[in-house]
Amino acid sequence: MKLRVLGCSGGIGARARTTSFLVDDDILLDAGTGVEDLSVDELARIDHVFLTHSHLDHIAALPLLVDSVGAMRGRPIVVHALPETIAALREHIFNWTIWPDFTEIPHYERPWMVFEPLSVGSVVEVAGRRVRSIPASHTVPALAFHLYNDDGSLVFSGDTGPNEEFWRQVNGVSDLRYLIIETAFANREQDLAVTAKHLYPIALGEELSRLRVEPEILITHLKPSDQERIQREIEAWAGRYSPRVLVRGDILEI
Counting beta carbons within 10 angstroms of the beta carbon of residue 98, is it exposed (0 to 12), middle (13 to 18) or buried (19 or more)? Predict the structure, then answer.
C-alpha cells in the first residue's frame, strides 16, 4: 500500500496545495486542491473518496473531479463521509446552484457519484485495504482515519484540536507506522487555533505526550503565510518527538 501526498498545506499559493492523499491509485483521503495536479487518466482511476469533514480546503476538488471523469467511468465514484458532511455537500455544493447534483446525473439510476455514510468506528474494506473512522474534534463534525492492511497502519488526524479519544484509538494501533497530524497555526495565533479547533506547536507537543506507540510523526496543514515560523516552533516545542513536516510529492509505503 502506497500513500502519495497530493496536498498537505493549510492554504494555497505557489507550490501549496490543500489536503489530499492518494492511496495506491484508487482511494483519496480528502479532496483538496492537490487533486487538481493529477492527470485525467489518474483522476479516472479514483473509485473511493473518504472525507474527514466538509470544509472547503478538504473538498474543493471533489465537484470538479466528478465532472471531469464521470463520463469516462463505468461505475460511480463513492464518497464516504459522516451524514452531516454529506448533508452539507448536498445543501451547499451539489445543489444545482453552485454545482450540479451528480447523484442524479446522467440519471438517478446511473449516477456519476454516490454517497456512503460513515460513523465513528465504521470500517470500509477496499481490495484488502481497510479504512476505519476514528473521532476528531473540529468546528464541524469531523473524522480521523486509520488506514491499514496486513502489513501495517497509518493514522491521519484530519483537522482536530485536543482530543482524548483520538489518542486512545491511536495508542491501540500496535502496528502504527505513520501518524499524520495537523499543526495549522503558529503559537502567536493560539487564540485563533483554539477557536478554530486546530493545533499549534505548543499544543502539538502536549498532544504528542499522550502517544504510547512509536510511529513516524508527520506534520500537515501548516498555513503557508506562516510556515517557516510554525516549523521553527514545532522543532522548539515538539522536537523531542522528531516530527517531520510533509511536503507535496512525499510517498509513504506500508
Answer: exposed
CA-to-CA separations, 203 to 76, 104, 181, 189, in angstroms, rounded = 40, 44, 12, 12
Total domain count, the chain: 1
Instruction: Look at residues 164, 141, 159, 149 and name the one whose alpha carbon lies nearest to residue 254.
Output: 149
The torsion angles phi and psi of 141, rounded to 5 degrees, stand at -55, 130
Spatial neighbors of 120 by CB under 8 A, at least 6 apart, are: 133, 134, 135, 143
CA 46 to chain centre: 15
User: What global pTM score does this model have?
Assistant: 0.97
Residue 36 sits in a domain of what CATH number? 3.60.15.10
Q: How far is CA 4 from CA 35, 134, 155, 188, in A?
A: 11, 21, 14, 31
Range of the domain at 110: 2-253
At residue 114, the 3 state secondary structure works out as strand
pLDDT digits (tens, 9 = 90+) for 115-169: 999 999 999 999 999 999 999 999 999 999 999 999 999 999 999 999 999 999 9
Comparing CA positions, the residue from 24, 96, 97, 89 lying closest to residue 62 is 89
